[in-house]
Amino acid sequence: MFPIRDSIPRIHTPWGVYLIIALNAAVFLFELSLTHEQLFEFVHLYGVVPARYLHAEGTVWEQHPGTILSLFSYMFLHGGWMHFIVNMWTLWIFADNIEDVMGTVRFLIFYLLCGLAALGLHMVFNAQSMMPVLGASGAIAGVMGAYFLLYPHSKVLTLIPIIFIPYFVDLPAVIYLGLWFLIQLSSGISSVGAGESGGIAWWAHAGGFLGGILLLPLFRQSKRCYFCYNSRGRRIGVARWSDH
Predict the structure, then answer these.
(1) What is the residue range of 229's domain?
(2) How many separate domains does the chain show?
(3) How confident is the model at residue 161 (pLDDT cuts 50, 70, 90)?
(4) What is the pTM of this model?
(5) Could you tell me the CATH number of the domain that includes residue 150?
(6) Which long-range CB contacts under 8 A does 163-168 form with residues at least 24 apart?
């Protein structure tokens, strides 16, 4: 499944989303300028290698101890064009509506904390991994978790490829995001004890999603407006958190 657009218009200018996309783009362009050897070292230093933090004496990067910087910088690294484009597109679709109810500063803090939650759960199940964790998907999963709570009846135009035929369908957000989370969770469970999970950090996605759900009540602002919908997915007006 790939999201094309959602049905929720934004109210406020999403300056935080713009900033995150710009930073990711700048770092990705820098990665493209590196040689293969330079890129290898860069992602190992500024991505997160779980074993470097939890079993540093057993890694080839022992001379580069884990730093607080990489706990945040990993969220702005990407492994290729597809990785970068899919993450930024998904962020663009869901994040503006979350910034609507938080404000820019709170949203940026929320985003980073979701990234930390994603990393934390990944490291629980991959404590000895020497594969660097990189990408914005864990933090974006937190945005999706918050969206799951805020806008369950919105519609997500979804691309579902069937063999070579593209199929487009409007799915309620609760179904699209619920299915997405179940895929991450089931894939994470099946990957336990199976090595590096094909390079996909399933547990990071699940951890970020759950982190977004848990953190949302702490970061929403009562005076910020957002569009509210009834159980049939029809917009019934603009509300504030203090109205509920």
Answers:
(1) 2-243
(2) 1
(3) confident
(4) 0.87
(5) 1.20.1540.10
(6) 168/4
